[in-house]
Each structure stands twice: as C-alpha cells, then as structure tokens.
Amino acid sequence: MKNLVLAMFAIVALASSARADIAVDWAKGLVTANGVGIADRHAPNPAVARGTSRRAAEEAARAQLAKGLGALPVAGGGTVATHATGDAKVRLERAVADAIAVAAEPQTDGAWTVTMAVPIEAIRQALDDGPRAVGKDGDKPPAIVIVDGVKAKPAIGWTIAGVKAATIWVPAKDLPAWTKDAPHVTATGAKAGAIEATGITGGEATLYVIAQ
What we know:
It is built from five helices and eleven strands; from the N terminus they run H-E-E-H-H-H-E-E-H-E-E-E-E-E-E-E. It is of the alpha/beta class. It has two domains: 111 residues, no CATH class; 68 residues, no CATH class.
C-alpha cells in the first residue's frame, strides 16, 4: 500500500511538472503556459466555483510564465534572465501581467484549465527599451517581409539588416497563406544577434517571417 501511495504521488508530481512547463511557438510568436484552478469545495454549486477557479488558473499560468521566460535565448547571447534587469525587468513583469488567455476549459466540478500566452514580440520590446515611438508620417514599409536562407536558430531580438522588428520563424514549406503576396529577401549571414540580408525594404513596423 505504501508503495502504491508513493507511486500515485510520483504520478501527480509528474503531471504537475508537465503543466508547469512553458511552451515556445516561434511560428506563432507566442510563449504559453498552463494553469489549473481548483474548484472551491465550499461553493454552493460548480457555476459559483468557476468564478474564483478561473482567476486562480490564470494566475497559476502567469506564475509559470514568470518563472520560465528567463530561460529563453537572446539572439546576441545570454538569456532573457541575463538581460532583464532594471527597467527591462519591470517591463517584462508587465508583459506577464498582461498575458492573454488563448485556451480555457471548464471542468464539471467547477475547476478550470487555462492556457495563457505572452507574445514573443512583447518580450523583445521589454528587453529593448519598450515600444517604439511612431514617427509623425506613420509607417510606410511593407507589413510583411519573408527572409529566405537564414542559417540561425530562433531567439529573441534578432535584427534584420539592422532593423529591430518582430519576427516569426516558419518552415519554408509551411509559409502561411497570408504571406503569399509578401516580398522576399535573401539572408547573407547571421551572427552576433544580426541577420544580414539583401534587398531589404522593411522597417520597424514590419513583421519578418524567417523561412527556414
């Protein structure tokens, strides 16, 4: 019986650990974590219990994001944790607080399982002096530029031909349909956090789709 109890605890611990992991989707540009909110057994019914358990699930997911984001790689070297100091740390904490729910599943007993997400671009901006100021003439570059031939691994903060902008990393064979009319440029090198490319026409408002 004792061994059975220990085994059950091990299974629960393993399941909790799996739920605690963050997931990074470079193609969607999101970092996600799951949170579970346990139903209040003293609530009069499951419908009432779901109010507090939903909030608890969201906070649990945010807590996992706060712990896990620090391990993400930064293009120029190091990790988010090594760069998130001073004001950058405050901005990163704000990004976690502003995490959005991308999935939520109520349970019959009043509990919730919720997946919260922080955009990778929000992390980049947190480490890079926050959101930029838009010029008085607005943004004129193309909304999307596809960068072909990049020989580098996904990381936060890659610049494209010196431009600081949002990036997503997608297998070339899986380019989304919404990129079909976007201009293509060719990468000529990638090192020290910088991807060099020829024919660049984008700017800081451009979404760079790194096709690998």
